[in-house]
Design goal:
Aminopeptidase, single chain, six-stranded antiparallel sheet, 19 strands, alpha+beta, 2 domains, ten-stranded mixed sheet
Amino acid sequence: MMFLPKVDTTYLINILSGLLNTPSPTGFAEAGIEFAENALKPFAGLTFCHTRKGALLVKWEGQRSDHPRALTAHVDTLGAMVKEVKNNGRLKLTKIGGFAWNTVEGEGCTVFTQAGAEIRGALLLTKASSHVYGGATNETKRDDDSMEVRLDARTSSVNETNALGIQVGDFVAFDPRVEVVNGFVRSRHLDDKACVANLLTSVKAITDAALKPLQTTYLLISNYEEVGHGASTGIPQEVEDLLAVDMAAVGEGQTSDEYHASICVKDSGGPYHHGFSKQLRKLADQYKIPYKVDIYPYYGSDGEAFWRAGGDVRLALIGPGVDASHNYERTHEDALVATTNWIMAYLLN
């Protein structure tokens, strides 16, 4: 049995923090793609290309190439776009991805203009002040019409906001608020930047140990997962196995927790490939990697996007447990290390 290289936890946490602090909402994920590519460039044996959609595809030469593999994780995140500049100079948004407005109420945000300016603000309820609106502040339903961005600029009209360079279609990124405390990583967008960090750390550990994956392996860092079609293209035709690495959902009725890696055997799209999942569970048992087996009722992955697009691969899904997904999320170093070890066990065997 091939030994597993040691995980550099300092690198893992630092690369994750850097990813989290790089805004990359779906449709505007170029900075996240660039961050991942720059992090991988120092390692030998990798070649890089970009899909027409803008995803990063990395080829990693293996000891053999008779059964090529791929792994995918997505760097795009939830976010928003400017739908309307309101008469009061504030912004009405349209959501990117599936989240509830109350999960980002009061959050700081950045508006990215077409000219390249970055304008700060905060997302608020239109009736935010309880001193003014009384019970309506609590009772108002949070929806597209009742939420607005208050810009940190002197504007109270459409013309003044337009003069800042802001217009319909500009992207908006919510602050991640990254904190690392007692082994916990608390931040927005751990889905799925935690797993991108897992992939990058696996490459570093294996390369630093002067090893190569058993099979030639492709890494797809996708950029449209949060809207359902991230990895529908980009996986080379010769690939036989696709391992999607994405967060595990933690909550009531789930086996997943913040301290373990999880393998998802079924989600909203149906079961994953039983034989491949069984192989991964056997590897985790052999290497004594702590893991959970779970089913996610309201969840879909990039792997399923590839299946739905006609991809003919064995497909499985693993990832670290993340509490409060699509909210202010949290995971633990133990889950991140376990997931990284699981990826390496697969790559080396």
